[in-house]
Every structure is written in structure tokens, then in C-alpha cells.
Amino acid sequence: MKRLIKSFKYALQGVRYNFLTQPNFKIHTLCAVLAITLAYILKFSKMEWAVLMIVIFLVIAFEAMNTAIEEAVNCATKGEMTETAKIAKDSAAAGVMIIAFLSLIIAVILYLQKIISLIWG
């Protein structure tokens, strides 16, 4: 049980580190809060909530993994930007970008019709 509690403590420290030091993590978190607020206002169905939560947590998780990969590469290369270090960092960033684009597509699917209906009845 102690190991489990410690693992949660370390994970929460990682969330805190990302939130305090990574501008994109803050942006994704702010977008998540706005998306959740709008979903509440638009009275999302259970299925819409499920899709929204999956996408939100994927984006934030990918951003955290991107930070982990960047820091590991920095540690392994002692800050020297080799071509393989650049590829690793760029590929990790690409993963975040791809999932962020997916989240935008899903946002259009989830929100657009509801917003149009709200505006024009």
C-alpha cells in the first residue's frame, strides 16, 4: 500500500512540475477547463462527455510524455543537440500536435451543431 501511495505522490509531483514549468501544459489545461464548462452549458450527453474526457486526458497525457522525453533526451545528451536528440524531441512534439489536431476535429463534431442550434434555435 505504501508503494501505491508513493507512486501517486510521484505522479502528482509530475503533474505539478508540468503545470508550473510547461507553458503548453497550462494552455492545454485552460482549454480543458473551457471545454468542460462549455460542455456543461450545452448539456452534453453521457457519450459526449465520455468522448470529451478521453480526448482531454489524452492531450494532457501526451504533453506530459513530451516533457518526459525532452528531459530524458537532455539528460542522456547532456544538453548537446545531436541529430538523433532532435529527432526524438521533434517526434515527441509531433505526437502532441497530432493528438491536439484530433481534439480539434472532435471538438468540431461535438460542439458545432449544438452551438449552431443554440444561436439560431
In one word, what is the shape? Answer: globular
SS class: mainly alpha
What is the element string, with H for helices and E for strands? HHHH
How many domains comprise the coordinates? Answer: 1
Q: Taking Cα atoms only, what radius of gyration do you get, to the nearest Å?
A: 18 Å
Largest sheet: none
If you had to describe this structure to a student in words, what would you say it looks like?
The chain has 4 helices and no strands. With 121 residues, it is mainly alpha-helical. It has one domain (2-120): Helix Hairpins (Orthogonal Bundle). It is globular, with a radius of gyration of 18 Å. The termini are far apart.
Q: How would you describe this structure in keywords?
A:
single chain; 121 residues; mainly alpha; Helix Hairpins; 90% helix
What's the quick description here?
The protein has four helices and no strands.
What's the SSE blueprint?
Elements: H1 2-21, H2 23-41, H3 46-77, H4 83-120
